[in-house]
Write a structure and sequence with these properties.
The strands form two sheets. A nine-stranded mixed β-sheet has the order 2-3-13-10-15-8-7-4-6. It has eleven helices and 15 strands. The protein is an alpha+beta fold. This is Cupin-like domain-containing protein. It holds the Pfam family Cupin_8. InterPro entries: Cupin_8, JmjC_dom, RmlC-like_jellyroll.
Length: 343
């Protein structure tokens, strides 16, 4: 795996470290948090973490012992590559997708361990309840009343381009070592984002190679670095990534495992903002400028402002979706959108 210019990371500000002695303290830290923080050793007592501290092979054996007999999706990069999951010269993915039993995939990692020309092998966003029995129960993290999605990320040395996610995220390093480089949400212009409909994993990613940034092609990236934070996680450490923060992720060891928890503070019946952005590109972006200006005002009025001037003149009980949404009204609105989009 190609090494990054160490000076890039040495110049960055380290993510703040905090402590959480129990579930109540963790809940207090997470409630309303808007900036990243690291908690050292939060899950160090997990059986999976302890297995990984003894050896990567033992961590793999632990996971295989809990795996269900279902196919696991795996990304495979070219032998001797630098671990970067990205685009090729034709803007297609530079890795191949396959499916197999977890034990067979791990056999491939075993067979290539220590080889300079080993292929990149990466299993991303594995839904834990679907793919494992007892793994979450035996390696539990109390998150209060939150109902998170729990996922595993497993692989050889990898580089995941900077991207963001809508939910809040608590990422726990289980085995190996991870480095996260983080940027506030407003830095998207300085990260030179790629396509939003042709992506390595469903989210637009930075086109900048963090191991060899080309500031002639991406001059604003220098400004992004002025706002960047960095965190290196050892087994048992956890990193909180707030909603919409950009993060570039590197697996630095020969074998790396991360378990993460995603949750959103808003009700699940609400839609995904990315869907609204896609729909706006379809229906508004290419309108004449004068018409776009009108729609900008309407969005400010109904969506971003959402003040009493939009509703107070309408009788109570007759405001429809202009009232705060609940599960029933959100469902009706979703059905209406599906009908209109299918015309």
């Amino acid at each position: 795996m190609a090494e990054a210019d160490a000076s890039i990371y040495a110049a960055l500000t380290a993510v703040e470290e905090r402590e959480a002695s129990d579930a109540a303290a963790l809940d207090s830290l997470l409630r309303g948090a808007t900036t990243p923080f690291v908690i050292r050793g939060l899950v160090r007592d997990w059986p999976l973490v302890q297995a990984g501290l003894r050896s990567a092979a033992e961590a793999r054996g632990y996971l295989v012992d809990h795996a269900r007999p279902v196919p696991f999706a795996v990304s495979i990069g070219a032998p001797g590559g630098d671990g970067r999951l990205f685009y090729d010269a034709a803007m297609q993915m530079n890795f191949q997708m396959a499916k197999g039993k977890l034990a067979d995939i791990f056999s491939g990692i075993d067979a290539n361990e220590g080889r300079a020309d080993a292929p990149m092998i990466y299993l991303g966003s594995i839904d834990v309840p679907t793919h494992f029995d007892g793994l979450e129960a035996d390696n539990r993290l109390g998150l209060g009343t939150r109902e998170p999605l729990v996922s595993l990320w497993i692989g050889t040395p990898t580089r995941i381009a900077a991207h963001n996610d809508f939910p809040d995220n608590l990422a726990c390093c289980v085995a190996g070592k991870r480095r996260f480089t983080l940027f506030p949400p407003d830095q998207f212009r300085n990260l030179y984002l790629g396509p939003i409909d042709n992506t390595p994993a469903g989210r637009a990613v930075s086109m900048v190679d963090f191991h060899a940034p080309d500031l002639a092609a991406h001059p604003r990236f220098a400004h992004a670095l002025e706002h960047a934070l960095v965190a290196e996680l050892e087994p048992g450490d956890a990193l909180f990534i707030p909603s919409m923060w950009w993060h570039h992720v590197e697996g630095l060891a020969s074998f790396n495992v991360l378990m993460n928890y995603w949750w959103r503070e808003t009700p699940r019946f609400l839609g995904q903002p990315q869907d609204a952005l896609n729909h706006a590109i379809l229906s508004i972006r290419d309108l004449p400028a004068a018409e776009k200006a009108i729609w900008r005002d309407l969005f400010d009025h109904y969506v971003f402002g959402n003040g009493p001037e939009a509703t107070d003149h309408i009788p109570a009980g007759a405001r429809g979706v202009l009232d705060p949404l609940d599960a029933e009204s959100a469902g009706r609105l979703r059905s209406f959108l599906l009908r209109t989009l299918s015309r």
